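Lab meeting minutes (informal)
Scribe: AK
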Amino acid sequence: PYSKGIKITAGAASGKALIEIHQNPEYDPADPKKIIGYRPIRSLVQYPEMADLLGRAARLGNSIKPILMEFYDAHGDITTHSRTGGHLTAADPYAQFLSTTQTGALNGLFSRADAFSGMLNRIVFAQGVEKYKSGMSNRSLDIEPAARPLMLIRTWASSGRSVSMTAGAITLFEAWFQTKFQPLVTGENANPILARCDLLMKKLMLLLAANEHSDVITEDMARRALSLWPYLMGCYGVIESRISHFDMDMGEAAERILQAIKEWQDTTSTHPSLRDLYERKLKKTIKDRRLMLQALTAMVSIGEIDELMVKSSTNGRTTTRYKWAPSSTPL
């Protein structure tokens, strides 16, 4: 039977691990070791820091980006196959991925490749206004007022429902689609980050209908959903300003940095400094030093390389050097 619960789990470091989290095998009663099928799982997957998720995803060979995109598209079973891991299947999963970050931490984590591949436009960026923060607050969040209404919504939707739109709601949505949305996602100056905002608007209208236990999206619901468009534009505008415009993807830069560190360690039995890496190894391949700095920061944050503070034996100055950390390299 379909579970009515929600599986809350920490984020996985790879696409393979993400599918394993959503595996729910059904065993043959006559042979407990034999899998006869898989049951769906609904989950809330939490990544405490988006920089950690994107840093891992930037590594070439990591399959988490395409797997995350498959979860968003919700086309049914999600599968992967490898020589070491074999064949893995998540049957018709439903997952919500939640993460947080500071705006300043986004610099360089996103590239134009992420925008055009569809990775970015599958993420909903929601920013809040700055709030007063007490230095000695002992208030706790009370979710009880929301619990009962949410239980009623689940009861209302449990039998399976088809939600339609009134003619007035369709007219409003079509007007927004043609005059506000289409000009932004078509033509030479199309913004790929906004490409799926029409689907987001439909989801918002559906949520408003579910909130009122209505099988029909009314003109008022459509109007309320569309009123959020300026807010969403503001949120995505901040992300757009933070996207890296470097010619090279950060994942490719990370690969070249890692290779250079390995070569330096194998050749000299020492650990390279930033100057060693850039001037002697990477200046011709990574032309923008800022990209290299951002890639190094991301690699350190996820434990792929170690940052060492080494004091010189000649002048006593401390130099930052980088060490490959194979035991910490994510799968």
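Next up, CB showed the second protein from the same session:
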Amino acid sequence: VPEVASGDPGTNADSAANADAPEPAPEVGPEPSSTPEPVKAALEFQKENPDDLEGQLERFQAVLTLFEGKPPAELARQSIAEIEKRWDAEASKVLAQIVEQVDKALDGAEFALALTELKKFPTALRNAKWDKQVEELNAQVAGAANKAFEKLEVQAMDAADKGELQAAIDLYTKAAAYGVAEIKARADESIATLKEALAERQSAAAVLAERGTYLRHWMGLASFITKREYQKALALHARAKLGYKTEETLAEFQKEEDDINLLLGLFSKVEEGLLTYKKGKFIILGNLKGTFEGVENGKVLIKSKEGIVLPKSLDRLSDTEKLR
């Protein structure tokens, strides 16, 4: 049997046929499952809001609740753990820096400054855990302020007992600025009481000081009154009154002024009063005794028992005679 050549026409024909046949399509695996929308939203929010840790936690906790027992829940757990770890690290770092400033403030007994520093803890890092730590630090500062206030109050009370009221007020004023509401309320109450006592003392001292100058004024006033120069007395009184301020002295001034006006009014009415006398009425004016005969040219006419009419000038009458 002759050997079949490698170029056997039958073999060549098969090869040609195979060459013309189309290549088979590649195998396609199962289509990957799509990411759930809540997960996409959480991841997108985390990317766009890297500093909003609270917002990130809320979204991944929602994913955890929705997909409990499913693959997305594991992703949520991991993300939550990472966010909480980052939150604690950042909060711890920031609070450590704040505490450093608080300690410096406390060293100088600047309690209000210490409380102000604690208020600087960022809102974005606040949660139940870190709020608790900040509140504990606030309580420590308030405790230190209360201890300082107890010592200061002893000093203030001692100063008040010695009569050093302004010094006591200054000490309580310092305490009121500690920044602790309870301490401020107690200090303000003590300050009000001390200021009232100080005002009373200053008023009493002012009254005593004014009494001395008022007595000197009265001596000058009396000289005018003695000479029956009532208008001059009133003018002097009005000028002097401008230099006095205490209620007690001003009341005394008013009383004296009223008395001078009373004298002035009475003596200006003497002639009018005499005109109401009935002619023939018995009258005594100084060393003159007799019956009233009337008033003529500023003189009172008196008839003695001998029948002699004697004149008495009105401006020569004494104050007692005028009042009579």
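CB comment: The beta strands are 282-285, 288-296, 299-303, 309-313.
No objections, moving on.
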